[in-house]
Amino acid sequence: MIKNFEDLGVWQGARELCKEIYSLISVNEFSKDFALVNQINRSSGSIMDNIAEGFGRGGNKEFIQYLSISKASGHEVKSQIYRAMDRNYVSKEKADEILLKTQTLINQIGGFMHYLKQSEYKGVKFKEPELVYFTNSKL
After folding, report:
1. What is the CATH number of the domain that holds 65?
2. Measured in Å, how far apart are the chain's first and last C-alpha atoms?
3. How far apart are CA 60 and CA 54, in angstroms?
């Protein structure tokens, strides 16, 4: 059962990708290209952050919207990896590895979006509110 965004496989995968990107941008000449480092760091973080934020919205429609943003950030990461490879900051082999991981994550997010679109469950914010009794409360 999924209770927190940390339970989601797509978020876990996004976190791993973000950590791998950070280790890549923290060394050699790559670390000195401040504009590209900032951009790829932010876009890789955006994948996991938008999954978390969308989950927190409590409804499938909003969640799907944020998952779409996560997918777009994944494509942005891919483009930035090509730039890093073209600037010789990363080898073709390493770039291919990260590109594959990123595309796999994009595909997983897309599959999750499809699942949510087909689901009868519309989100926690649409559940019947539970009765809450306040005792000794000063509302």
Report:
1. 1.20.1440.60
2. 34
3. 8
Q: Taking a C-beta distance cutoff of 8 angstroms, is the pair 112, 10 a contact?
A: yes
Query: How many other CB atoms sit within 10 Å of the CB of residue 52?
Result: 17
Whole-angstrom distance, CA of residue 109 vs CA of residue 67? 7
* Dist. CA 108–CA 113, nearest whole Å: 9
CA within 13 Å, CB half, 54: 25
pLDDT in tens, 100-116: 999 999 999 999 999 99
Q: Alpha-carbon distance 116 to 66, whole Å?
A: 12
Looking up tokens 């509110």, which residue turns up?
Answer: 129
The domain containing residue 96 runs over which residues?
A: 5-126
pTM of the model: 0.86
DSSP single-letter state for residue 5? G
